[in-house]
């Protein structure tokens, strides 16, 4: 449906984004290799401390993945089986909250619950146990990773369970299958197909976790590769060690991505909350009790830290914080950086999916170009933000003023990190829209800006705003890229919260965390609100 000129423009736009992305990531990696070479990588491989860090990184990721899945299975079964109780839809929506929450805010909420003076320890002390839980170290990292990743696993499992045909449940009831038999013959085969992809995704997220480990890590014994890179540059200033660690992190991430590529990818096509499936086993006393316990534990574990952040933030002197000039500066900087990162990510995603559409059905060269565009997301995931920041930090170090380049670099890194997710949000909507409106645009002779204004923007406004809001929220809560460049010259809200925590100004950190969370929530809601149709659109529909 595209003319030769339109195809050329689309391919040129995709090529420009692809070249910029490869250049941005490639220069950082090239600088790491040029400065340290493989000698730096070999040096860290023979370092017993670094090998211990690598071992801890993989161990905590594996343990976090196992705990998240083990916790998610009974919760997903309970929500799939008990489909008709008051508040179920809000419980399902609660599963999405941790996934969109900045990691630093989640860490503060978990400290309020599991910390020395937290709710959990106070309750256990009342029972006669003296501080049985420590939020810092491996225990805290595991709790935090389960808090963020259990809802993700539960969501994918629930989607699979809700797609089981209703005839299966009628047959299980007629055969009189017990609960364990229902799990063995009906539910487990479905979950078994979903779990490998979910486990790989969660393992990747835990192995590349930075903010949670930086905040809750318990010193040298509870440090991951990304935190070790940050410490090597920010505190010890040992560039050779940082380079070796960065190359090791890239190698580990490449292996994880290669394994994930061999696993079936989990699909999230939305929960079918309105599907009328009748589970005859839901009314059994044992099933109802087990489901109530599973849902209750999930609700307390997930909602209590969020409530703690809200209560602690309201107890702080919000009016005093809002009046502080440094808070104004940090908020403005965060919004500008997040808006810049969001716009870059959305424009780049549009260029990529448009070029992929233009390359579809072409020759071998165009098919290779389309594969390169699809692989660009994997390239971004291959190099975590802290590694990208390390490469550019070392590249700009000879200039003597790294801070002068900090703002555009942080925006670019955040845009690159958000790009794979924005492509996933925008891509399907763009392809469906172009198929539906291609003949209309051709018959009207619309192209370029005219087509964008009259056809594309009205049809793609919602997914584009969703992508923009998601990228902005992701950038707004980021601490990884800012960790190396954060200073008095580049103060963002997450960095200000972390600084106040480091200075033991907990009340200020709680208030700022609440403000940051409300801004991220507002961005998420703004991107997902349905818009009212105009009379013309309603008639066309």
Describe the overall structure:
By secondary structure, the chain is mostly helical. The chain has 22 helices and no strands. It has helices at 4-45, 48-81, 88-94, 103-114, 119-126, 138-162, 166-175, 179-207, 211-216, 225-234, 239-262, 285-315, 318-323, 325-359, 364-382, 385-396, 406-444, 448-476, 480-485, 493-502, 506-528, 535-540.
| Tally of individual helices | 22
pLDDT averaged over residues: 82
* Helix content, binned percent: over 70%
Radius of gyration: 25 Å
C-alpha termini separation? 22 Å
Please give the largest β-sheet: none
The ordered string of helix (H) and strand (E) elements is HHHHHHHHHHHHHHHHHHHHHH
Categorize the overall geometry: globular
Bin the strand percentage. under 5%
**pLDDT below 50 for ≥5 consecutive residues: which ranges?**
270-276, 530-541
What is the strand tally?
Answer: 0
Structural class: mainly alpha
Task: Give a summary of the structure in a few sentences.
This protein is mainly α and 541 residues long. It has helices at 4-45, 48-81, 88-94, 103-114, 119-126, 138-162, 166-175, 179-207, 211-216, 225-234, 239-262, 285-315, 318-323, 325-359, 364-382, 385-396, 406-444, 448-476, 480-485, 493-502, 506-528, 535-540.
Key features?
single chain, 541 residues, mainly alpha, 22 helices, globular
Question: How do the strands and helices of this protein lay out in sequence?
Answer:
Elements: H1 4-45, H2 48-81, H3 88-94, H4 103-114, H5 119-126, H6 138-162, H7 166-175, H8 179-207, H9 211-216, H10 225-234, H11 239-262, H12 285-315, H13 318-323, H14 325-359, H15 364-382, H16 385-396, H17 406-444, H18 448-476, H19 480-485, H20 493-502, H21 506-528, H22 535-540
């Amino acid at each position: 449906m595209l003319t030769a000129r339109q195809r050329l423009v689309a391919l040129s736009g995709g090529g420009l984004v692809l070249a910029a992305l490869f250049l941005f990531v490639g220069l950082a990696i090239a600088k790491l290799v040029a400065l340290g070479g493989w000698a730096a990588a070999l040096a860290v491989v023979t370092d017993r401390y670094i090998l211990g860090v690598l071992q801890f990184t993989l161990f905590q990721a594996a343990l976090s993945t196992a705990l998240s899945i083990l916790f998610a299975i009974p919760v997903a079964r309970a929500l799939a089986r008990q489909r008709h109780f008051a508040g179920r839809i809000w419980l399902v929506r609660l599963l999405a909250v941790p996934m969109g929450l900045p990691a630093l805010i989640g860490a503060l909420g978990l400290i309020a619950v599991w910390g020395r003076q937290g709710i959990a320890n106070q309750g256990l002390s009342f029972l006669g146990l003296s501080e049985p839980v420590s939020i810092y170290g491996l225990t805290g990292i595991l709790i935090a990773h389960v808090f963020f990743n259990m809802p993700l696993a539960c969501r994918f499992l629930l989607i699979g369970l809700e797609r089981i045909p209703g005839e299966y449940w009628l047959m299980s009831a007629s055969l009189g299958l017990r609960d364990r038999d229902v799990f063995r013959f009906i539910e487990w085969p479905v979950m078994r197909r979903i779990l490998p992809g979910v486990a790989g995704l969660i393992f990747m997220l835990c192995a590349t976790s930075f903010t949670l480990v930086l905040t809750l890590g318990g010193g040298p014994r509870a440090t991951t590769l990304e935190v070790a890179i940050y410490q090597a540059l920010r505190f010890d200033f040992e560039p050779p060690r940082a380079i070796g660690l960065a190359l090791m992190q890239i190698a580990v991430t490449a292996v994880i991505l290669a394994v994930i590529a061999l696993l079936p990818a989990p699909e999230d096509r939305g929960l079918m909350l309105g599907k009328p499936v009748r589970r005859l086993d839901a009314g059994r006393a044992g099933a109802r009790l087990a489901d109530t316990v599973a849902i209750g534990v999930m609700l307390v574990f997930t909602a209590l830290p969020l409530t703690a952040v809200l209560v602690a933030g309201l107890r702080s002197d919000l009016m005093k914080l809002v009046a502080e000039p440094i808070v104004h500066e940090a908020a403005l900087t965060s919004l500008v950086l997040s808006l810049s990162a969001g716009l870059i990510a959305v424009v780049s995603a549009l260029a990529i999916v448009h070029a992929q559409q233009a390359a579809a059905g072409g020759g071998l060269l165009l098919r290779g170009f389309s594969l390169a565009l699809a692989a660009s997301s994997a390239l971004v995931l291959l190099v975590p933000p802290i590694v990208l920041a390390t490469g550019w930090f070392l590249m700009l170090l000879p200039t003597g003023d790294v801070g002068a380049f900090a703002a555009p670099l942080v925006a670019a890194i955040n845009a690159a990190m958000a790009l794979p997710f924005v492509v996933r949000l925008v891509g399907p909507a763009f392809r469906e829209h172009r198929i539906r409106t291609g003949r209309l645009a051709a018959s009207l002779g619309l192209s370029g800006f005219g087509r964008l204004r009259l056809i594309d923007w009205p049809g793609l406004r919602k997914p584009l705003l969703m992508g923009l809001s998601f990228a902005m929220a992701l950038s707004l809560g980021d601490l990884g890229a800012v960790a190396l460049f954060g200073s008095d010259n580049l103060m963002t809200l997450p960095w200000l919260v972390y600084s106040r925590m480091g200075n033991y100004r907990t009340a200020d950190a709680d208030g700022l965390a609440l403000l940051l969370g409300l801004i991220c929530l507002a961005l998420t809601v703004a991107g997902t609100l349905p818009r009212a149709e105009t009379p013309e659109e309603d008639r066309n529909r």
